[in-house]
């Protein structure tokens, strides 16, 4: 499935990570954290040291759609500057996990913590604001607005948040230059290649300096070479800024670019 469209302090740590595998082929180490200073980082797996605090943690996540199990009790955490791949068979809960972690869906039980704040129990308006201000999203189909040039697509989330048009466009242009699209900033999505359009979507996801970027099959509509370029750009640009990245993917090459992989099978983290 694709995407549809922050005070309490968590009292205890948890132990999910024996079920999450490091990706040995990934040379990068996660960057510095930017969890709120002074917070005992909720959701931090016990083996993470002070250099690797979890910016995002899900604990005991359960989600049903009527009788259908979406998630059956998932523990997961991701550090600032770390890219986590979420893999597993179709229909086993990957997108559900992404939506619950991103505050798009509320879990039936369990908790989600973002940089020291429990977020699963916030109201709709607060979660919407949090998603806009602190999270970034990259979709399989870039979901750019066809009638707007690239720079306005990137500037839009900033303007919605009250940044002046002039400043938002300036930041959008800087961001587009960073994804190699300075020359394309005035083009509309229909005038861009699939890979270029996805780079615009990456610029849009990053322009607000999010703490976590969620991507659901971000390379699913691209050929292998373009997909590899796009995922490298996304992970490099996000983790360089200290953001965490959570990528749902069926693609081993995409997962290999991430620091760790977690497999979701039957709504649970698989140990196999
Ligand atoms: N809105 C919904 N209503 C009812 N059932 C749903 C809904 N969304 C997901 N499901 C069901 O929940 C289970 C998990 O779905 P989910 O989309 O999370 O799987 P997935 O691993 O992301 O699949 P895929 O790889 O095919 O995208 C599936 O059985 C699915 O049919």
TrEMBL record:
<dbReference type="InterPro" id="IPR015854">
    <property type="entry name" value="ABC_transpr_LolD-like"/>
</dbReference>
<feature type="region of interest" description="Disordered">
    <location>
        <begin position="1"/>
        <end position="51"/>
    </location>
</feature>
<protein>
    <submittedName>
        <fullName>ABC transporter ATP-binding protein</fullName>
    </submittedName>
</protein>
<feature type="compositionally biased region" description="Polar residues">
    <location>
        <begin position="16"/>
        <end position="28"/>
    </location>
</feature>
<dbReference type="InterPro" id="IPR003439">
    <property type="entry name" value="ABC_transporter-like_ATP-bd"/>
</dbReference>
<keyword id="KW-0813">Transport</keyword>
<feature type="domain" description="ABC transporter">
    <location>
        <begin position="56"/>
        <end position="272"/>
    </location>
</feature>
<dbReference type="InterPro" id="IPR027417">
    <property type="entry name" value="P-loop_NTPase"/>
</dbReference>
<keyword id="KW-0067">ATP-binding</keyword>
<keyword id="KW-0547">Nucleotide-binding</keyword>
<dbReference type="InterPro" id="IPR003593">
    <property type="entry name" value="AAA+_ATPase"/>
</dbReference>
<dbReference type="Pfam" id="PF00005">
    <property type="entry name" value="ABC_tran"/>
</dbReference>
<dbReference type="InterPro" id="IPR017911">
    <property type="entry name" value="MacB-like_ATP-bd"/>
</dbReference>
<dbReference type="GO" id="GO:0005524">
    <property type="term" value="F:ATP binding"/>
</dbReference>
<dbReference type="InterPro" id="IPR017871">
    <property type="entry name" value="ABC_transporter-like_CS"/>
</dbReference>
């Amino acid at each position: 499935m694709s995407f549809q469209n922050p005070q309490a302090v968590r009292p205890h740590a948890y132990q999910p990570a024996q079920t999450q595998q490091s990706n040995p082929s990934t040379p990068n180490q996660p960057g510095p954290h930017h969890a709120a200073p002074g917070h005992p980082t909720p959701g931090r797996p016990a083996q993470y040291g002070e250099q690797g605090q979890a910016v995002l943690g899900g604990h005991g996540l359960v989600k049903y759609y009527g009788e259908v199990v979406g998630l059956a009790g998932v523990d997961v955490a991701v550090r600032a500057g770390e890219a986590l791949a979420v893999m597993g068979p179709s229909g086993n809960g990957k997108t559900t996990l992404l939506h619950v972690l991103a505050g798009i869906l509320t879990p039936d039980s369990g908790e989600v913590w973002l940089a020291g704040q429990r977020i699963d129990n916030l109201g709709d308006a607060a979660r919407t604001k949090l998603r806009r201000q602190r999270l970034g999203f990259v979709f399989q189909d870039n979901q750019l607005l066809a009638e707007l040039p690239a720079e306005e697509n990137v500037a839009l989330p900033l303007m919605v948040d009250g940044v002046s048009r002039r400043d938002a466009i300036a930041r959008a242009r800087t961001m587009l230059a960073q994804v190699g699209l300075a020359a394309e900033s005035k083009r509309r999505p229909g005038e861009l290649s699939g890979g270029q359009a996805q780079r615009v979507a990456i610029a849009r996801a990053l322009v607000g300096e999010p703490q976590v970027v969620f991507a659901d099959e971000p390379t699913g509509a691209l050929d292998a070479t373009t997909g590899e370029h796009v995922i490298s750009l996304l992970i490099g640009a996000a983790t360089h800024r200290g953001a965490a990245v959570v990528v749902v993917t069926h693609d081993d090459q995409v997962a290999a670019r991430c620091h760790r992989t977690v497999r979701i099978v039957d709504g649970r983290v698989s140990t196999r």
